[in-house]
Write a structure and sequence with these properties.
Oligomer: heterodimer
Number of helices of chain A: 1
Low-confidence stretches of chain A: none
Largest interface: A-B, 43 and 41 residues
Mean pLDDT of chain A: 93
Shape of chain A: elongated
Distance between the termini of chain A: 109 Å
Structural class of chain A: mainly beta
Low-confidence stretches of chain B: 13-29
CATH architecture of the largest domain in chain A: Sandwich
Order of helices and strands of chain B: HHHH
Number of strands of chain A: 12
CATH topology of the largest domain in chain A: Immunoglobulin-like
Radius of gyration of chain A: 28 Å
Radius of gyration of chain B: 38 Å
Distance between the termini of chain B: 146 Å
Helix content of chain B: over 70%
CATH superfamily of the largest domain in chain A: Immunoglobulins
Strand content of chain A: over 45%
Strand order of the largest sheet of chain A: 1-2-5-6-7
Largest sheet of chain B: none
Helix content of chain A: 10-25%
Order of helices and strands of chain A: HEEEEEEEEEEEE
Number of strands of chain B: 0
Chain lengths: ~210, ~160
């Protein structure tokens, strides 16, 4: 009887220790932070909030003072609060876009930027209503002088294209780096530099429809 | 002739200068120039987040930071000497907001870290309780099994073949 009782007790202790190990291991796994891949989503949508209809009547040949509405969005999936900046650059076919291999920004001039603090999983969408407010066309070259963005005029520097073909607006995503205390193109995660940029092409073959 | 041309060029330049000064064109500026407090505020907020601050808790300081960012941008636009006092006032407001955010973030870090430790303790405690309950269930099951076996043994009938 005594042998039976001590055998039962030993069995119970073994069961308890086994269960304790299993349950505490589960608790440890629950307490561990979930591993995730930090990244940003960066997009530009047309006037109808779709990936299309970027230009009135779907005609990418635009005219002076023709208002165009886009929405630029950033989704923060970095797991931390981020300060992001969207830089708007004016370019054409000859000015190169950002270099994805080297992670370098485009040398095109920056017209303006939009900055915002974003929480983790937060989406920030900026309405981008723009039009060409001043341009000249001579000797087969169209030169845009002033661009209006969200009711504010900005001078455009060296923004010209042969016969008004292949202008483009480049949007670059910059993030605030607390180490360097400045905005840097792209973002850094576990010593990996990632970048995100968008571009939308357009033509301006004549200044007015007629 | 040359003198007339020079005078004409000077007049054109003067007119262009006056026109440029009066055109409502925004200067292409970026948000590169931020008050030093912004960096510290971001670091403090990230600390609060690592300590377990929830998105709803962080929403207020983040909204304040966005307000400070807007004011900082407004201040950057004021560049003339006439606007100096307004600029100083705006930057003072920015500093004030940043101080508030830093204080909120420090407080959030303390509260969240305490809450996180408590949650961790409760999770481990739940594990121990689950182990004890499991053992009790096992012991009861074994006891029931033993009793049923004894019962079956005593209910057995001996039959002649």
């Amino acid at each position: 009887m005594s042998f039976q009782s001590s055998r039962n007790r030993l069995g119970l202790i073994v069961v308890f220790i086994t269960l304790l190990i299993v349950c505490e291991a589960t608790a440890y796994a629950i307490n561990l932070p979930q591993p995730r891949q930090p990244f940003f989503q960066f997009y530009v949508l047309g006037a109808n909030h779709t990936a299309g209809g970027y230009y009135p009547m779907n005609d990418s040949n635009i005219y002076l003072r023709e208002p165009i509405t886009w929405y630029i969005g950033v989704v923060n999936n970095m797991g931390t609060v981020q300060l992001v900046s969207i830089r708007v650059k004016t370019s054409n076919q000859t000015i190169p876009p950002p270099d994805d291999q080297l992670g370098l920004e485009s040398p095109a001039p920056t017209v303006t930027d939009f900055a915002q603090f974003l929480q983790d999983n937060e989406t920030w969408e900026v309405p981008f209503v723009w039009s060409i407010s001043n341009a000249t066309s001579s000797s087969g070259a169209t030169r845009i002088l002033t661009v209006e963005i969200n009711n504010q005029s900005y001078p455009a520097t060296s923004w010209s294209a042969s016969n008004g073909y292949n202008f483009r607006i480049i949007f670059e995503l910059w993030t605030w780096q607390t180490d360097s205390n400045t905005f840097e193109y792209g973002w850094v995660t576990q010593e990996t530099h990632s970048t995100a940029w968008l571009q939308v092409w357009f033509n301006m073959t004549s200044l007015s429809p007629h | 002739m040359s003198r007339t041309s020079t005078t004409f060029t000077a007049a054109v330049l003067a007119v262009l200068t006056i026109l440029t000064l009066h055109l409502p064109i925004a200067v292409s500026e970026t948000t590169d120039t931020l008050q030093p407090g912004f960096n510290q505020a971001i670091v403090e907020l990230r600390d609060a987040q690592s300590a377990g601050a929830t998105p709803s808790e962080l929403s207020e300081p983040v909204a304040l930071l966005n307000k400070a960012l807007e004011l900082n941008r407004e201040a950057l636009k004021l560049s003339t000497s006439d606007e100096a006092s307004e600029r100083t006032e705006l930057l003072a407001q920015v500093d004030q907001i940043l101080t508030t955010v830093e204080n909120q973030a420090i407080q959030l870090t303390a509260v969240s870290s305490q809450r996180k430790s408590m949650n961790e303790f409760l999770t481990y405690l739940s594990g121990a309780i689950a182990a004890i309950l499991g053992t009790i269930v096992y012991a009861s099951a074994m006891s029931l099994r033993r009793k049923s076996r004894i019962k079956r043994t005593f209910q057995m009938r001996v039959s002649r073949k």
